[in-house]
Amino acid sequence: MPTEFLALFFRSWLPAPDQPARQLWRRWLMLLLFWPLLLTLLLINELGLLLDRVFFSGYRRVQIKAPVFVVGVPRSGTTFLHRLLALDSRFCTTALWELVFAPSIIQRYFWLGLARLDRLAGAPLARLLTRLERQLLGKLDDIHRTGLAAPEEDYLALAPVIGCFLLVIPLPDERLWRLARGDRELSESEKHRILGYYRGIVQRHLWFHGPGRTLLSKNPSFTPLIESLAAAFPDARFIACFRNPTQAVPSQINSILVGARIFRGRGIDADYWRDKLTDMLCFYYRHLFETLPRLPECRHARIQLEELAPHPYATVSSLYQRFGWDPDKDFCAALKNEEERARHYQSGHQYSLTGVALARQRLARDFGFVYQHLGYPLPAPEQI
């Protein structure tokens, strides 16, 4: 495990100078519960990756051909689009269990072998795991519904090399915010290290599932690394998701605040998080507008949630036409089924705009170029 990660770990125990004692005890309690599990898991995963080089060295010869990256602004439909595209058998995407418990090939064989033995015994472990999964992950359904077998963001596997932005929630280190402006603020050596590690993870994944399949990656946190990804994967395609800032910005701020309060208590500095995240999202929009047009038209597409949510079939069909993909009958049928489900779907993510406390003037000032570029109306005073 990199020494940089361990250094961040030890710094996470240092209290802020003005942190109240009640918040300090809560934070240390969470760290005592969270860090031993995380560090143990990462050490096991790193051992598995090392053993792959001995027992499955052929993965390093896998060619990553024309990968597809779903990027964009968080809370803009990236998860919905990702799971729609994952219905197409041409794509190969990562599941949560693979990212957390089995980034290596040898771990995947171990867990799948254990699952076979469990089925022979009547699947008692599978039933227990399903109950635990719902108890732990079900609490996040209103913000981001997921499950161990569900398609998930593969940047989670970048935690050991400090390439996963979500580490900023448990780790109070300003350097992690540089990931939110990766193309501009990371050094060339840092980008090379992160993307080199990522390439190895993807090669293992394709080796296991079939080298002939196309990688489908969904990571809003890859948005600030579009330039670096485009250079590292010259034939990659990028699908950027957008949403009205009036909804996207407060929704993302609220989502992160939920996690921050879990680790640091309800007395967190909400102004700090609001300002940091607002600046980050402003950069996301601007970076998308600046970088995508520099790519050939055949390598990028833009989707707005306001079109995707009510009309997934038409939106995805248009996307396939743009990239010259031919959808098969099974995928078309699955899309139509998802369109029917979308008509009855209502998001459970409820949040208080008053609690987020974003001023209309700030949205109009910081995101005015977004409203103008995408044709969204400026927020009315009563909306904020």
Total domain modules: 1
Strand order of the largest sheet: 2-3-1-4-5
Provide the CATH top-level class.
Alpha Beta
Low-confidence stretches: none
Distance between the termini: 44 Å
Q: Give the CATH architecture.
A: 3-Layer(aba) Sandwich
The coarse overall form would be globular
Might you state the CATH topology name? Answer: Rossmann fold
Tell me about the largest β-sheet: 5 strands, parallel
Q: What is the C-alpha radius of gyration, as a whole number of Å?
A: 21 Å
Number of DSSP strand runs: 5
Description:
The structure is a single chain. With 384 residues, this protein is mainly alpha-helical. It has one domain: P-loop containing nucleotide triphosphate hydrolases (Rossmann fold, 3-Layer(aba) Sandwich). The protein has a five-stranded parallel beta sheet. The longest helix has 35 residues. The chain is globular. The model has no long low-confidence stretch (mean pLDDT 86).
